[in-house]
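Okay, any thoughts on this one?
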Amino acid sequence: MESPSAEPPHPAKDVTQHVGYLLKRAQAALRAAMDKVLREHGLTVPQYATLELLALHPGMSNSDLARATFVTRQSGNVVLRGLQEAGLITRPTTADHGRARPAHLTEEGHTRLAAVQAAVYAIEERMVEAIPPQRMAALLTDLDRIAAALEK
């Protein structure tokens, strides 16, 4: 006996037209494009995101960086160790208080970030150019609402 199929949440011919599928397709395309340009600079997406965040917010902890870059604390620690070994960040060997060891970009970290930003920003520009300007604000609001609805 066949089980009844659930109704889709919105009209769509098939799963490839569902919001989740299209979001994942866009995310996969973005990740592939970023992987390609970052590889040329010896960085991964989490490493690049960490450098960007530390440039904006020096002294972030591993936990804060992991949350902001969408990786686990364990993976975040691996990212930080790799960046530290590459001379792109510094962290104290011990924590002043608690367990947090704030990270900071080195001069080489700032240089590497500046070298790769143009390539990454060009990818974002390609995405933005695909959206009519009058719809950009609504798209950003909608993406934020989607994330908030799923985080409940």
